[in-house]
Write a structure and sequence with these properties.
Blueprint: E1 5-13, H1 21-39, E2 47-51, H2 53-62, H3 64-75, E3 79-82, H4 96-114, E4 120-122, H5 132-138, E5 143-147, H6 148-153, E6 165-169, E7 172-179, H7 181-186, H8 192-205, E8 210-216, H9 226-232, H10 235-245, E9 250-253, H11 255-261, H12 276-281, H13 285-298, H14 302-307, H15 319-322, H16 324-344, H17 353-365, H18 383-403, E10 411-416, E11 425-430, E12 433-438, E13 444-450, E14 455-456, H19 469-481, E15 517-520, H20 527-531, E16 546-551, E17 555-566, E18 569-580, E19 586-594, E20 601-611, E21 620-623, E22 629-632, E23 637-650, E24 655-678, E25 681-698, E26 705-714, H21 716-729
Parallel strand pairs: 1-2, 1-8, 1-9, 2-3, 4-5, 5-7
Antiparallel strand pairs: 6-7, 10-11, 11-12, 12-13, 13-14, 15-20, 16-17, 17-18, 18-19, 19-26, 20-25, 21-22, 21-23, 23-24, 24-25, 24-26
Helix pairs in contact: 16-17, 16-18, 17-18
Length: about 725
Amino acid sequence: MSAQVRLVLTIHNHQPVGNFDHVFEEACRDSYEPFLDLLEQYPTIPISLHVSGSLMEWLVDHRAEYIDRLRSLVERGQLEILGGPFYEPILACIPRRDLVGQIQAYSYFLRNLFGQTIRGMWVPERVWEQSFAGDLAAAGIEYTVLDDYHFKAAGHAGDSLHGYYLTEDEGRLFKIFPGSEFMRYTIPFRPVEETINHLRDIANRLPNPIVTFGDDGEKFGTWPNTKKHVYQDGWLRRFFDALAENGDWLKVSTLADVVDQVAPLGKTYLPDCSYREMTEWALPADKQTEFHNIIHANKEDERFQQIMPFVRGGFWRNFRVKYSESNDMYARMMEISQKLESMTANGIDPDNANLINEARTHLYRGQCNCPYWHGAFGGLYLPHLRNAIYANLIAADTLLEAASGREGNWLHIEADDFNLDARKEIRISSNRIAAYLSPAMGGHLYELDVRGIRHNLLATLNRREEPYHDTVRNAARHVKSQKDGEAIESIHDSVHFKQPDLDKKIAYDNWPRKSLVDHFLHPDATLETFQAGHGGVGDFVTGVYDTKLRRSDDRVEAIMSREGQAGPYRIRITKTVALNAEQSGQLEIAYLLEHLPPGVAFHFAVEMNFAGIPGGLDDRYFYSPSGRKLGQADAIQSIDNPIDRLGLIDEWMGIDVGIQIDKPTRFWTLPIQTISQSEGGFELVHQSAAVIPHWQFMAPENGRWSVNLTLATDTSAAQARELEHAAAIH
């Protein structure tokens, strides 16, 4: 008989900008290539495939034969290539100009690569806001797939989800397919018969229905335990066999085929939404736990099931509220995007066209979504992904500075609302570094970009409560009470720990782990008490500092001052952060403490944090003024013999960070490590190395005490390596 139901299989393959090369290779080996091996054997089964631009570029460079295979499937009509924003940004996280620009750039790239007009696209993480309909149409896209969860939130239910709909924005029409959540959970995790029976039931009830599946290609081999299930145990082959065997009533189609052959069910407008799990992850930790408890307590109640379609979690943009580090990246990205827009508003100078175009590519790469949020995958908690974002944004910024005509040893200082908090921050920049200060938040140094290696030494991450920390604690309690040999998995599905005793390492930070964090400590405070977040007796850590700027041709200064409490005493701190043209890679930091009560003992500390230098490796280490190694980057150490310099070196990255002090003192060092979840389980992740010079002194008769520090960044090793590499190529 003729087909009664159309099934659209939409596969989305993605690896983020900055992911490790071996992760790309493993995903190819375990998912992308074996999936294609089987698909090629079933020419009557077409699919719609989206490959993110960051992954596609890697495939072009490293797997040319895979690209050829995709091209062959396109040519024989078995494969529809979907587009989207080039480097997989969340659409709600980038300006409209970049949204349209990324989509158009990727459509052009794909059309040249595969010879197919790009009509449909994948919406990253299915984060949807209704205004996107007009933007996507303006970018030349006709249709996309979202979750049926979006449609249920708009009042659709049951059989009204088996088709596709028109929507519009400002008169521009767009088509949207509801992706089946049921099939997202049955494919490939349940027996093939469950999916086939579900489709048969729909075919028996409805005339000419459409069922759309849209989900990650990595679930076919890369996700834990799926490679054996999908390929070795034959799930995918059985699935394709079942589709072919039921071809008399089940027609597998692409999105393009359906749009060309079937009319939409009607018109709809969808609320701001994403897939169900994403809306839960966007909630604050306590509300996320409360949400889960409510669902769990009522899931068997029939009345509650009727209410569920109208119950939603949070709004994606609130990840920028939940995680200040996400907002920092977003604000930096917005700064670069606006700078690029301003420089090109009246056209591009032909002499700078290459610089501008390269800067735009780096900006787009710096918008890749993965480290801007956190859920079941590592995301924001993975330092290498955050570092990749900053690497591209720093590269774009440096190129735009060059395009603006700056050359040689230049300096600049300015005040603006750089982090979008309605308060002004300070940017001190040169040809070698860019430093951002937040007077409204303790006068912290919250970003320090080293241009030579495209690295932000303050891409730190605070330790904060996450709902899954309860899972870690509960599993640990179970292990203590279980018999020898009993598995943790007996009480938690797929609970896996990459290191032992993670429950003992859960800690939360009481202040931002940035630099120039000013602490007054109890006289008896030790490394252990400081590490535990105790011992503070002042209110300078996050207090507001007043600020003045000074400029000259060869020096710029930010002078921040504040009156506050140090125990029972009211004192004043003035800290000056300066940059000189001749030493444009180092910050000069001067502290002046005033109104100190004479003869009273004080314990003053300045916390620094350095991110992106991993722990546990012999070529990342602290060293003494004499060059002696003092411990790896994650070392917990109290250096009790006063020294006037402490260095931290990363030989692989080629950077040497040094803190020079004119009053020799003692140092503490300790790692900031998070307990986070990823698809592979729970893990301990090194986020930054905290370095704390601290002074214990008696206040002098004049009530004044001062200290000068120099924070130097030396990338000569990295530059020498680049020169050697360039010489070897030529």
